[in-house]
Amino acid sequence: MATRALLYRRPYEPSRLLVKHGSQIYSVRLRRHRRARRYTLRIHPSDREAILTMPPRGTIADAKDFALRHGGWIAARLGRLPKAAPFLPGTVVHFLGFPICGRLRNVGLVTGNLFTASQLERLSMN
């Protein structure tokens, strides 16, 4: 098994590609997947990054060409994501369509439900 791994070991591969579209430069993370049959692009919404999944026998040159051809798609999808809001005291956060404003220490999560400080005190007394 160890000799087989040495035979099929790949030379160094970059983990990211840079794609220029217009005046913007986007970072695309490369990911090989053993079950992939084609090159696919997706956008990870929380990380705000593009991920290019490639088949095991795919080449970096083909991946770069694919990412460059789809630079407009990457720009459009990243542009549609909502602006990131930092979690700071006084920040308004929308939860289930309702704006919540306050100190973060006054809000807690218990079993996936959002509670205020007074509700948490009542829960801890029981």
What does this structure look like?
This protein is α+β, with helices and mostly antiparallel strands and 126 residues long. Helix content is 28%, strand content 33%. The protein has 4 helices and 8 strands; from the N terminus they run H-E-E-E-E-H-H-E-E-E-E-H. The chain has a 4-stranded mixed sheet with strand order 1-2-4-3. A hairpin with a 2-residue loop joins strand 5 (92-95) and strand 6 (98-101). Mean pLDDT is 79; it is low at 106-111.
Instruction: Report the structural category.
Output: alpha+beta
Biggest sheet record: 4 strands, mixed
* Number of E-type strands: 8
Binned, the helix content reads 25-40%
What is the alpha-carbon Rg in Å?
A: 22 Å
Give the DSSP E fraction (strand runs of 2 or more residues): 25-35%
Short description:
The chain is α+β, with helices and mostly antiparallel strands and 126 residues long. It is 28% helix and 33% strand.
Topology overview:
Layout (H helix, E strand, L loop, with lengths): L1 H6 L8 E6 L2 E9 L7 E5 L4 E6 L5 H10 L1 H10 L11 E4 L2 E4 L5 E4 L2 E4 H9 L1
Which key phrases capture this entry?
alpha+beta, 126 residues, 4 helices, elongated, 8 strands
